[in-house]
């Protein structure tokens, strides 16, 4: 079966889930959706998503199928297409001859991740919810950059940095799983992704032969440049939020990222994993602290526990192996009071 990762990598938009409402309370009906299907690729016909199917009302007929989001009506289409097959299969039902519908919606008019709600409007005006179609759009590089920037903007001049400076033991105490995995990294040239104010870099003074610190936010770059101005072997670089440019291919021995990727959009995580493969030397390792929050609920990530974005241990492994990396170890961990909320994964080339 084609995985979700393949769909992302092959640059296709896909339908992730279709939930049929089973709402037969208002008026009895039979509804059949032929397209789209789960994991449907949508891009073939000019970035449109096609809806086809049929609907019959047992007591009165259905006039329209309505397509909407939770905020607005997108389109209403007449149920008026000839469906002799339905008449053949449901001879005892009325109004079967013209029970078909066909509609196409342009993907660029829909939001990046979202859902389309299908409703039936009956002759007497009664509205019955039929299905919710959850889709995820393939993102162009520009789309991915703007998602990364939106999240990055939440971390400019944030009170987090001062507070976090005092709570390092969870990462650096010898007994932690973070430290045990970190001990496997070769510190000849190590890169820290999303360094913030550099509290982890502090632990690498005198230990890393070369440390490259990266972050999406200029204010963090300025802070770390000042903080480590006397460390000749430390460099601080602002990146674009989706990859390690301008780092050269095969040039870094290890990468780590703590308490940051947990907030990233999963497609940015995929993009970083693809670039991890590019910059690591053969035999290099990357240690990533990421989310294991499985609910892709289309809410703003800030509303999830500890602002975790959607990601799972399994999806991360799928993205990593799909990017040509080898999974060395994965450890699911609690965060605060939330059981199994996070995961740390060590990958290698
Ligand atoms: C919660 S802070 C953690 C900072 C640091 N890792 C620490 O543990 O102190 C999240 C960091 O991720 C950075 N960030 C957010 N999105 C990013 C992205 N897409 N790429 C690189 N850095 C990002 C923010 O600027 C911020 O420094």
Give structural notes.
The protein has 349 residues and is an alpha/beta fold. The protein has two domains: 4-136, Immunoglobulin-like (Sandwich), CATH 2.60.40; 141-348, Rossmann fold. Helix content is 21%, strand content 34%. It has a seven-stranded mixed β-sheet with strand order 11-10-9-12-13-15-14. The protein has a five-stranded antiparallel β-sheet with strand order 1-8-7-4-5. α8 (266-279) packs across α9 (313-322). It is elongated, with a radius of gyration of 25 Å. The model is unreliable at 1-10 (pLDDT under 50).
Distance between the termini: 26 Å
Provide the spatial order of strands within the biggest beta sheet. 11-10-9-12-13-15-14
Kindly state the number of beta strands. Answer: 15
Q: Number of domains in the coordinates?
A: 2
In the predicted model, the low-confidence regions spanning at least 5 consecutive residues are 1-10
Shape: elongated
Number of separate helices: 9
Which architecture name of the largest domain does CATH use? 3-Layer(aba) Sandwich
CATH superfamily grouping of the largest domain: Vaccinia Virus protein VP39
The secondary-structure class comes to alpha/beta
What is the helix fraction of residues, given as a range?
Answer: 10-25%
CATH class of the largest domain: Alpha Beta
CATH topology of the largest domain: Rossmann fold
Mean pLDDT: 90
């Amino acid at each position: 079966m084609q995985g979700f990762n393949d769909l992302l990598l092959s640059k296709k938009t896909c339908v992730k889930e279709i939930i049929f409402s089973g709402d037969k309370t208002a008026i009895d009906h039979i509804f059949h959706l032929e397209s789209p299907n789960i994991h449907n690729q949508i891009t073939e016909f000019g970035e449109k998503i096609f809806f086809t199917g049929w609907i019959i009302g047992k007591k009165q007929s259905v006039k329209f199928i309505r397509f909407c989001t939770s905020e607005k009506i997108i389109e209403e289409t007449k149920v008026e297409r000839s469906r002799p097959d339905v008449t053949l299969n449901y001879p005892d039902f009325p109004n079967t001859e013209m029970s078909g519908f066909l509609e196409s919606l342009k993907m660029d008019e829909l939001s990046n991740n979202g859902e389309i709600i299908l409703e039936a409007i009956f002759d007497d005006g009664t509205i019955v919810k039929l299905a919710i179609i959850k889709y995820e759009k393939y993102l162009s590089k520009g789309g991915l950059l703007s998602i990364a920037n939106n999240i990055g903007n939440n971390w400019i001049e944030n009170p987090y940095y001062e507070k976090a400076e005092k709570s390092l033991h969870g990462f650096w105490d010898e007994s932690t799983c973070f430290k045990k995995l970190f001990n496997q990294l070769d510190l000849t040239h190590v890169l820290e992704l999303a360094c913030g104010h550099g509290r982890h870099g502090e632990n690498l003074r005198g230990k890393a032969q070369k440390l490259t610190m990266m972050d999406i936010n200029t204010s963090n770059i300025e802070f770390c440049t000042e903080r480590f101005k006397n460390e000749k072997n430390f460099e601080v670089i602002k990146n674009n939020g989706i990859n390690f440019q301008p780092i050269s291919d095969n040039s870094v021995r290890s990468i780590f990222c703590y308490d940051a990727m947990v907030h990233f959009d999963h497609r940015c995580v995929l993009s970083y994993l693809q670039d991890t493969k590019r910059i690591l030397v053969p035999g290099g390792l990357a240690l990533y602290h990421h989310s294991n929050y499985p609910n892709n609920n289309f809410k703003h990530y800030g509303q999830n526990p500890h602002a975790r974005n959607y990601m799972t241990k399994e999806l991360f492994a799928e993205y990593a192996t799909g990017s040509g990396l080898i999974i060395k170890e994965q450890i699911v961990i609690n965060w605060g009071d939330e059981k199994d909320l996070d995961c740390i994964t060590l990958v290698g080339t």
